[in-house]
Amino acid sequence: MVDTFNTIYAAADLHAAAMYLTENPVSYVFNTHWHSDHTSGNQLFTPQAQIISTSITHEIMATFGKNRLAQQLSNPEPIYQAIDEVEEKIKQETDEKLKKEMQWENASNREYMKILPNLVYTLPTITFDQRMSIMVVIGPYSSSRMAAVTRKVMLSCTCLKKKLP
Predict the structure, then answer these.
(1) Rounded distance, CA 125 to CA 123, Å?
(2) For residue 40, with 0-12 CB atoms within 10 Å meaning exposed, 13-18 middle and 19 or more buried, which class applies?
(3) Within its chain, how far is the Cα of 156 from the centroid?
């Protein structure tokens, strides 16, 4: 699994989808960086899965990230004020594309604030410095659902290749 989304609820859906497709628990989660929209769902994957990140990501999460979360929990008002300010800017925005992006970002921030009291800040359990190799053994499909999805993806790629010059 790569990244665990911004909310516990989204991570739960992601976890359920992975279980449905593979019929196996998630073994590894990769946090690409420390931002909350990539790590807030980590707690739903442990202790079954190992969470992997760079050493730098782990260090930032363990220091700045933890301090930031503590600050957000102890004084959430500035975040709510910022959300309200963006809401006012959205009302004034005339560029529809930018308006939709602002709405999406603000909705994401509101959802994050809803889960904040229940967030268990979960750090990576395995780190690496510059490079990490993982051997993946590909054997028989782990499930008939995964086989169907894999065949469909392979078929899509084959069709796409035929259309390219």
Answers:
(1) 6
(2) buried
(3) 25
| Global confidence as pTM | 0.71
pLDDT computed for residue 137 by the predictor: 55
The CA distance from 105 to 99, in Å, is 10
Task: Grade residue 156 by pLDDT with cuts at 50, 70 and 90.
Answer: very low
- DSSP for the chain? -B---SSHHHHHHHHHHHHHHHSS---EEE-SSS-HHHHTTGGGTTTTSEEEEEHHHHHHIIIIIHHHHHHHHH--HHHHHHHHHHHHHHHH---HHHHHHHHHHHHHHHHHHHHGGG------SEEESS---------S-S-HHHHHHHHHHHHHHHHHHHH--
